[in-house]
Design a protein that fits this description.
- This protein is of the alpha/beta class.
- It folds into two domains: 4-172 and 345-377, Glycogen Phosphorylase B (Rossmann fold); 188-342, Rossmann fold, CATH 3.40.50.2000.
- It has helices at 17-31, 48-51, 71-88, 104-108, 134-137, 148-158, 202-208, 227-236, 254-260, 275-282, 312-327, 333-344, 346-358, 360-368; strands at 4-8, 35-40, 59-62, 93-98, 112-121, 142-145, 164-166, 188-193, 217-222, 243-245, 263-266, 287-290, 306-308.
- The strands form two sheets. Strands 3-2-1-4-5-6-7 form a seven-stranded parallel sheet, with helices on both faces. Strands 10-9-8-11-12-13 form a six-stranded parallel sheet, with helices on both faces.
- Helix 8 links the parallel strand 9 (217-222) and strand 10 (243-245).
- The longest helix has 18 residues, at 71-88.
- It is globular, with a radius of gyration of 21 Å.
Length: 379
């Protein structure tokens, strides 16, 4: 019989890491015979998982409310879900996978079969024990983090007694990316991929651009968010000929963007295990990123990337050093792709997700017995 999987999350950003992962995860589960229902109290109307749900196909249950920042809207959305969803979710699920770790999990648990599994995930790092609601915590049978480093932090901060697995999110990069070819570089093509805002360090990158001393070079910014503000900043700085702000991009556009790139820079103030960095490695593009979240784990035994302290001077020096290494031929794109393939290949990561959600009895019993369940043997 087909496994019935309930996926629930707050889906507030069209092209965020969580939203990308849940699209790819739902697609993967459906391809392997599962019936998937996505339930979201708050959902941006342009999220592909909701907008294009018939392509997968998945069943979508949501509410009319998309404002997640106002308490009144949150209460209305929760009230709507409690009233209407029992009429829409009449069949019971074998597995519930939730990135919403509020007390609402206790309500959703009624839709899971007796003997079913409730599995939680949270991106980033835990801020405090209050990040996992006690009503949610008591319902869990397992917890999934993006990396072993995060798994240990979640275990400690949340006081988890259930098994914890380390499985990265599913990216838009498949294992058939073309092999990176060495090329002569005159003008260095630098890219930024992700949400355009202060939190992600977009403006920080603009502010230090002149000080990088890596020219000739060009910066192309791809991502949704505060694009018009970023364009205005670029014009005010007189850098319109050196910096382009291109707006949102799709997974289908990713290969073209990364094929043209020589270097990716991600100067975030906070992260988990960023999808764009794993995608860059899959295409053989080196990166310079700030040491936040679990980013440092991507530089372990990896000479073709650079992770620097969360400091402007360190970031400037890191980009300069990487630009010099690229131009001198010290960075090996194919070696970087091999590193990605060995540790974060789509095949390896997807196999773990399928086991955790579609074979939960064996997967989580092994985890409970202490068997390593991290990807590629990384504990």
């Amino acid at each position: 019989m087909k496994k019935r999987v309930l996926v629930t999350s707050i889906l507030s950003w069209p092209l965020g890491g969580v939203e990308t992962h849940l699209w790819n995860l739902s697609k993967l589960l459906v391809e392997h015979g599962a019936e998937v229902t996505v339930a979201a109290r708050f959902a941006h109307p342009e999220i592909p998982l909701l907008r294009d749900s018939q392509e997968l196909p998945v069943h979508v249950v949501s509410t009319p409310f998309i404002q997640v920042s106002k308490l009144a809207w949150r209460r209305l959305s929760t009230g709507w879900a409690r009233l209407v969803w029992p009429l829409q979710l009449q069949e019971r699920f074998d597995v519930m996978f939730t990135i919403d770790v509020t007390g609402f999990v206790d309500f959703l648990a009624q839709f899971v079969k007796p003997g079913g599994y409730i599995l939680a995930n949270r991106f980033g790092l835990p801020d405090s024990p209050r990040g996992l609601h006690p009503l949610a915590k008591r319902r869990l049978h397992g917890f999934i983090a993006e990396s072993s480093y995060q798994a240990e932090r979640f275990r400690q901060v949340f006081g988890l007694s259930v098994p914890v697995a380390a499985i990265p999110y599913l990216t838009n990069a498949q294992d058939d990316a073309p092999r990176r070819r060495a090329r002569a570089i005159d003008e260095l093509q630098v890219v930024y991929l992700g949400r355009v805002d202060e939190h992600k360090g977009t403006y920080r990158l603009l502010d230090i651009w002149r000080r990088l001393d890596i020219h000739p070079a060009r910066l192309d910014i791809h991502g949704g968010g505060e694009c018009e503000q970023a364009k205005s900043r670029v014009r005010a700085m007189g850098l319109a000929e050196q910096i382009g702000v291109h707006g949102p991009f799709t997974g289908a556009q990713l290969p073209r963007i990364l094929k043209a790139a020589d270097l990716l820079v991600l100067p975030s103030y906070a992260e988990g295990l960023p999808l764009v960095l794993m995608e860059a490695m899959a295409y053989g593009v080196p990166f310079v990123a700030t040491d936040v979240g679990a980013v440092h784990t991507l530089a372990e035994d990896n000479p073709d990337v650079l992770v620097v302290p969360l400091d402007n001077e360190a970031l400037i020096k890191g980009v300069r050093d990487m630009a010099h290494a690229i131009r001198c031929g010290k960075i090996d794109g194919q070696r970087l792709q091999s590193y990605h393939q060995q540790r974060y290949s789509y095949e390896s990561v997807s196999r773990r997700w399928l086991a955790a959600l579609l074979e939960p009895e064996s997967f989580w019993s092994r985890a409970a017995e202490g068997e390593p369940v991290a990807v590629a043997g990384r504990l």
